[in-house]
C-alpha cells in the first residue's frame, strides 16, 4: 500500500536528511520506525502523511503517485491517514468529544450520525467520565488517548505515530501500544516511531525500520517481502 523508491529529502539547500530510502509497507502490518535522534524519523513520517514532498525518488501511496500529487488531490489521500504526535496537538478550547468529532465534522458527517461512533470511541479509550472536559484538565496519557481516538475515528488505512509514548509514563505507554495494536488487528497499517526498545519488544509480530543518519536499514528483513505466514485477524472486541 506504500512504496518508496530511492527517496531523498533535503530542507532548502542543506545536505539530504534522508537518502536512498526504499521500502514497501504491506496492508495490515505493524511497523516500528527507530533510530538515533536526528536520524530522520520525523522527516520520514512527514513524507508518509503528506506534510512534506520528497526532493527526489518515487513515492506511491494507495496506488497514487504521491511524490507528484496535484495540490487538489492531497486532501482525499490525506483523509486515509491518521496521525498521532508526541505532544498530542489537541484543540485546547474544544472538549474531548469535540476534539474526537473534529475529523468527522470536517468530512461533513452530520451531528446525528456522529454521536454514536464518537461516544463509542470515547468509551473505547476509557474516557467516558471526561467526555465534556477540556484537554488542559487531563493527564498526558489521557490527552494522548484523545489524540489516538481523533486519529482513528475515520478508520484510516494508515496510522502514523511520531513518538506517541514519549510524554507518558511506562504503564500508560503499554496501554497506548495496546490501542495501536487493536487498530492494527482491525486492518489498519501502523507506523510508530519510537526510541523505546522495551515497547518494541512487546509487539512480537512488528517489523522494524531503522534509520541511521538518513539511511534506512531493515533488521527484520520484512520491508521488501511480506511475511508468508501472516494474515490479518478479524477478531475484535472494539466498538467499531
Ligand atoms: N524544517 C527543517 N529544516 C531544516 N532541517 C531540518 C528540518 N526538520 C528537520 N531538520 C533536520 O533534519 C534532520 C533529521 O531530523 P528529524 O527530526 O527528521 O530526526 P528524528 O530522527 O525525528 O529526530 P528526533 O528523534 O530527535 O525527533 C536533523 O538534522 C534536523 O536538524
Automatic annotation (TrEMBL):
The keyword Membrane applies. InterPro entries: AAA+_ATPase, ABC_transporter-like_ATP-bd, ABC_transporter-like_CS, ABC_transpr_LolD-like, Cell_div_FtsE, P-loop_NTPase. Pfam families: ABC_tran (PF00005). SUPFAM superfamilies: P-loop containing nucleoside triphosphate hydrolases. It comes from the Bacteria. The keyword Cell division applies. One of its GO terms (biological process) is cell division. It is a peripheral membrane protein. GO terms for molecular function: ATP binding; ATP hydrolysis activity; transmembrane transporter activity. Keywords: ATP-binding, Cell cycle, Cell division, Cell membrane, Membrane, Nucleotide-binding. Residues 215-240 are annotated as: Disordered. Residues 2-236 form the ABC transporter domain. One of its GO terms (cellular component) is plasma membrane. It is found in: Cell inner membrane; Cell membrane. Part of the ABC transporter FtsEX involved in cellular division. Important for assembly or stability of the septal ring. PANTHER family: CELL DIVISION ATP-BINDING PROTEIN FTSE, IMPORT ATP-BINDING PROTEIN. Belongs to the ABC transporter superfamily. Homodimer. Forms a membrane-associated complex with FtsX. This is Cell division ATP-binding protein FtsE.
